[in-house]
């Protein structure tokens, strides 16, 4: 998709407006804001991201906190892509900032669950809520295409997200194996049923809560 600047004179002919073009040129990145021409979240992206970071800052489990920070504070390429990504091609939140808006919404709902059901492990549920759809930054191409990538078609965001998380976990010294399995299980099971794309069904209450969110 190219952005073009056109200058000319608007005239009326046969009761209809028409433009007599004097000049047309392709504009370069930095000369325009794509959000002016593409669907974008109605909420401020930086404000939503700050809210998401506040949930990470509030975590008490050091391993889960470091895992989330490895994506959302330390991985600049991931951060830039996450802020711009949609949550889906068209089903829901199919716009710039849609993935962030959806993730924040799920995280808020999961926080509510932890207040209503104290048996839930709060940091585990909040962390997997934040991480559950990170694979979508690789499943879908950037706008204006917002279409499935080859890996998106072949693997899907659930598998890719689990792989991305495992790679980060390997870089965190002493990360408990059991906790790593619980995190990855919640990601793999968050669609709830095989026919909805999950390779595993929820076997933890946190995975079930994430699926309901």
Labels describing this entry:
213 residues, mainly alpha, 2 domains, two-stranded antiparallel sheet, 10 helices, 2 strands, 49% helix, elongated
Describe how the helices and strands are arranged.
Layout: E1 4-13, E2 16-26, H1 45-57, H2 62-72, H3 76-84, H4 98-116, H5 122-131, H6 136-139, H7 150-154, H8 157-170, H9 177-188, H10 205-212
Antiparallel strand pairs: 1-2
Helix pairs in contact: 1-4, 2-5, 4-5, 5-9, 5-10, 8-9
Task: Describe this entry's structure for a reader.
With 213 residues, this protein is mostly helical. It is 49% helix and 10% strand. The protein is built from ten helices and two strands. α8 (157-170) runs antiparallel to α9. It is elongated, with a radius of gyration of 21 Å. The two termini are 35 Å apart. The mean pLDDT is 92.
Ends distance? 35 Å
Let me know the average pLDDT.
92
Taken in chain order, the helices and strands follow as EEHHHHHHHHHH
Strand content: 5-15%
DSSP strand tally: 2
What would a concise description of this structure say?
This protein has two domains: 1-32, no CATH class; 39-212. The protein is 49% helix and 10% strand.
